[in-house]
Design a protein that fits this description.
The protein is an alpha/beta fold. The protein has one domain: Vaccinia Virus protein VP39 (Rossmann fold, 3-Layer(aba) Sandwich), CATH 3.40.50.150. The chain has nine helices and nine strands. α8 links the parallel β4 and β5.
Length: about 240
């Protein structure tokens, strides 16, 4: 089946896009190995160059897939690292704690409406110790993600060709989605699948969730993507 696909190494050669991704990660205190970065570049090439399953991304976004879509997909990883790196002592001052990758070992994470694989593929690449489920009902997207999974040898990722509500997934540590619906609708869909203490993480334009700023049940992590004007937000709600 592989002969039907073109696997370009364009993003392995695109130094401008690589530098924008690297700068974004550096600004957030994250350093990835060359191996991991290479897999992110390869995933970007697959999404941009694989046409047999339809246009997975617009021509405009194809030119900035690393700086726009990969960076955005890695924000939940950055957020989790930040949670584990810092804690407040009794005086309210920030003090560092050691982040242990074993903290995430055996955790289960589902991504609702995974589409062409963002954010779940980049997250599975940078967190191999987590078991991921890419949940997507559209058949062509499911076929593409299964191909990309094998091409990238992501053994910690399972593609589920169903709607999340009928996927049978439950007792999950994390559920994510990216620009799927309103926060309220996404949370309503996700909550039944979360274990007690589990976290729901969703990526939105900040303008679409500004009404949540005074909601004590959620935590909002604002950020700006490279060469993008608008402000984005990761919204986190725990299942208490």
């Amino acid at each position: 089946m592989e002969h039907f696909f073109r696997f370009s190494l364009n993003y392995r050669e695109n130094k401008n896009q690589q530098n924008l991704l690297s700068q974004f990660l550096q600004e957030h205190g994250v350093k990835l190995s060359e191996d991991v970065l290479g897999k992110l570049y390869d995933f970007a090439d697959l999404v941009v160059e694989t046409k047999e399953y339809g246009n997975l991304i617009s021509a405009k976004d194809s030119e900035k897939f690393l700086s726009r879509h990969i960076t955005d997909s890695l924000v939940p990883y950055i957020y989790i690292l930040d949670e584990r790196r810092k804690t407040k002592d009794e005086r309210g001052a920030l003090s560092s704690i050691v982040y242990q990758r074993s903290d995430l070992s055996s955790k289960k994470w589902a991504d609702m409406g995974a589409g062409a694989g963002c954010p779940v593929f980049p997250l599975a690449i940078v967190m191999p110790e987590v078991e991921f489920f890419a949940v997507e009902p559209r058949n062509m997207r499911v076929k593409f993600m299964n191909f990309a999974k094998e091409k990238l040898q992501l053994r910690n990722l399972t593609v589920v060709g169903k709607r999340f509500e009928t996927s049978g997934l439950a007792d999950l540590d994390f559920i994510s989605c990216r620009a799927l619906s309103t926060f309220e609708n996404d949370w309503e869909r996700a909550q039944p699948g979360l274990k007690k203490g589990g976290k729901f993480l969703t990526l939105k334009s900040f303008n679409n969730i500004v009404h949540l700023e005074n909601n004590p049940a959620v935590h909002i992590y604002k950020y700006v993507l490279p060469q993008e004007e608008q402000t984005y937000a990761l919204v986190n709600r725990g299942n208490e």
